[in-house]
Amino acid sequence: MVPVSFAFPFCGDEFVLTKSRALFWPRENALLVADLHLEKASFFARHGQLLPPYDSRETLERLAEAIRETGARRVYTLGDNFHDSHGSQTLGDHETGMLAALTRATDWVWITGNHDPSMEAKSGGTIAVELEVAGMVLRHMAKRGETRPELSGHFHPRVQVKIHHRHIRRPCAVVSHNGPDATGAICGRMILPAFGSLTGGMDAADPAILKAMQPASAIDAFVPAGKRLARFPLWRSAA
Known about the structure:
Layout: E1 7-10, E2 13-17, E3 23-25, E4 30-33, H1 40-46, H2 55-70, E5 74-78, H3 93-105, E6 107-111, E7 126-128, E8 131-133, E9 136-138, E10 150-152, E11 157-163, E12 166-171, E13 173-180, E14 186-191, E15 202-203, H4 207-212, E16 218-225, E17 228-236
Parallel strand pairs: 4-5, 5-6, 6-7, 9-10, 10-14, 11-15
Antiparallel strand pairs: 1-2, 2-3, 3-4, 8-9, 11-12, 13-14, 13-16, 16-17
Helix pairs in contact: 2-3
């Protein structure tokens, strides 16, 4: 199992952010990942830019390990699963077999994103534009003005910190707080880090991210660091 120290409360529930950039939801026994961008290298190759063609295999291997590590029986992917809607057609035989094995072993749901709005589940699983699970809205891109608990991806957030005169950038989750829920627990929304191997990143404090997470009273970045989950404030309401 993933380290307990990476667990944190969110909207009256407990979630665990893994070092591999997946989010585990123990109560639902579910693993959530965002922005796999499978077949990104082959997409660029078709457009004349050659990249090492191993990104899909590496991403799927890490995803398989995250499923084993957490024991998850359900998987939700939060959009941009493939770098384009036809990515499932360019997967190699080995990668297709890996993906088919994962979708057979779990209750798998693909949520589509802006890169793959018309993707087909050729290797198993079911497809949704967005979904609500146990009161939590799952979608690709954070919806400004959303007041329900929400999990999303899209922005590939990264936080930069300075340690011993070195600037270190790490993928992170961005969590907003917009007040207590019916039980009194702090509730808000969360943007997951990008899981894919060939995914860049946006500054977690970028105005586009902060704007997408409104309304909020506070916004923080969460990063697995050593044996604990580090928290970095990004924005606070002036009110």
